[in-house]
Amino acid sequence: QVQLVESGGGLVQAGGSLRLSCAASGGPFGNYAMGWFRQAPGKEREFVAAISRGGASTSYSESGKGRFTISRDYAKNTVYLRMDSLKAEDTAVYYCTARRSLGSQTVYITHGDYTYWGQGTQVTVSS
């Protein structure tokens, strides 16, 4: 059973930056593809970014391209989401997610693809 714990959320002004972290435990980190989703009040949970278990492949939502960067540190069993040029519409609860992956370069962008979810961390961007 994989446990995921997010941190790094908070209140930031529009145009600012945040780096979210997700610490994974309970399974071999290198076996899992990882992702970030977010959910704003009254909206569906949506894909933000994903990274393959090998780390070489990434994918981003249209809204995140050019502003967000996903990365992973195998020594720390942690995945990061660096968010720059934040906008008010980025305000949401951000969730870390994981799934076992056979393909080292496969990325997953659909909510239903993932098995394990963290509790979420709130990001609020003031305009």
General description of the model:
The protein is mostly beta strands and 127 residues long. It is 0% helix and 50% strand. The strands form 2 sheets. Strands 2, 4, 5, 6, 9, 10 and 11 form a 7-stranded mixed sheet that branches. A 4-stranded antiparallel sheet has the order 1-3-8-7, with no helix packed on it. The protein is globular, with a radius of gyration of 13 Å. The mean pLDDT is 97.
Summarize the structure.
The protein is mainly beta.
Assembly level: single chain
Content of β-strand: over 45%
Number of strands: 11
- Strand and helix order: EEEEEEEEEEE
Shape designation: globular
Mean residue pLDDT = 97
Radius of gyration: 13 Å
From the N-terminal CA to the C-terminal CA, the straight-line distance is 40 Å
Blueprint (SSEs and pairs):
Blueprint: E1 3-7, E2 10-13, E3 18-25, E4 32-39, E5 46-51, E6 58-60, E7 68-73, E8 78-83, E9 92-100, E10 116-117, E11 121-126
Parallel strand pairs: 2-11
Antiparallel strand pairs: 1-3, 3-8, 4-5, 4-9, 5-6, 7-8, 9-10, 9-11
What attributes does this structure have?
single chain; 127 residues; mainly beta; seven-stranded mixed sheet; 11 strands; globular
